[in-house]
Structures are given as C-alpha cells and as structure tokens.
Amino acid sequence: MAHRPNWRAISKYRNYTVDEASRILGVAKGTVRRWIDRGELPVINDRKPTLILGPDLIALGERRKTAKQKCRLEQCYCMRCRAPKGAAFRQAEVLPFKGTGAMVRMLCETCTAVMHKRVSWSRLEALSALVSLSGPHRFEHLTDTAHPCVNVHLKEDD
Question: How many structural domains is the chain composed of?
Fold first, then answer.
C-alpha cells in the first residue's frame, strides 16, 4: 500500500535538502527527485547540496491534495472504485448497531463490492424512500418484548 506524505511536518521558515525533505515527508529520496525533475518542485541548485524552500514544499502539498468526495444519503464510499457509489439494484440491508444509529450495508452498483455506512435513526426513514431496505429497522427494547425476562428458557413448567 502506498505511503502518504506528511505535509503538516513542513515548516515554511526552513530550507530542506532532498534527504531532509524525504525523511520529514516519509517518502523515498527518489520521489522528491522525481518531483524536482518534473518541475513540480522548484529548487535552489546553484550550490551543493540542492535546497528546497519550505514554502515551495507546502505549495506542492496543496497542489497534490485530492478533493474530498461527499456522499449523498443513498450513497456509500466504495473502497475499490475510490468514489461515492449508489446501491446495486437500489437495495440495502440495515444491520443492528448500538447507539443512536444503524449500520447500512449495500453492494456497489459498479463493482459489487460490499460498502458500509452509518446512518442515524432519524435519517433512516429518508433513506428508505430512496433505497429498498431489508432487515430490522429499529431495535426492540427488552421491556417492549412479549417476554421481558432474559432467562425465559430457564423457567420450570408447572
């Protein structure tokens, strides 16, 4: 799996060598040299060692950031497609989850990978209008059941 550079570790008040920049960002020296060779990263190379200005490294990090992708209510983020995707056949399954929400599981409409999303109980009704839901939609509290005792099977018959 690829390693992401740590752009927050760069100081705009410092100059870095290729070795220092690679160590701070957590990438290989060859990666920093490729950025320089492609013209993505300006350098001061009239002397040795080659220096990289901190603001130039920060600017490179800003340019290389990927835009966040927001999912709509009926979508989940597919790890395989690397994009927000809808449910295949517009069907999803509600899984029991503790707390104020439920876990919704659906298949990606493109690659059929399993996707998960946590949805609050209040938004579950709006989701059911967009996608066909299966499974228990709401937990039944123990006191609301016909047999509120957990040990019903242990009772002796008279």
Answer: 2
